[in-house]
């Protein structure tokens, strides 16, 4: 019997941080837990949230090795850059590729 291949996908999860070394372990609100890899900065943020026993919201790339994209206190306001700032960032990041494609 063949095991179906599951493509990586992004999920937002809710829960609490129960362990922050060497990988983050999140107790999910729905039950069970999820272990994810994270950057050093993300681990520091998770550790701070764990010390305060705060509920969290996190975005995770689900795949063979789940990877944390971001983590924050549940309900925290998310800063959204202005349209001008987003455009400037995109142009800065992609200007060379756009220039080459235009040729």
UniProtKB/TrEMBL annotation:
Recorded superkingdom: Bacteria
Protein name: Uncharacterized protein
Species this protein is from: Corallococcus aberystwythensis
Taxonomic lineage from the root: Bacteria, Pseudomonadati, Myxococcota, Myxococcia, Myxococcales
């Amino acid at each position: 019997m063949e095991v179906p291949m599951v493509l990586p996908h992004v999920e937002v999860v809710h829960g609490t941080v129960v362990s922050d070394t060497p990988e983050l372990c999140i107790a999910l609100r729905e039950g069970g837990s999820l272990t994810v890899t994270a950057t050093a900065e993300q681990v520091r943020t998770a550790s701070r949230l764990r010390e305060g026993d705060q509920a969290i919201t996190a975005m995770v790339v689900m795949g063979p090795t789940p990877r944390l994209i971001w983590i924050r206190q549940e309900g925290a306001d998310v800063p959204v850059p202005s349209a001008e700032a987003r455009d400037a960032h995109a142009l800065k990041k992609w200007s060379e590729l756009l220039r080459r494609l235009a040729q």
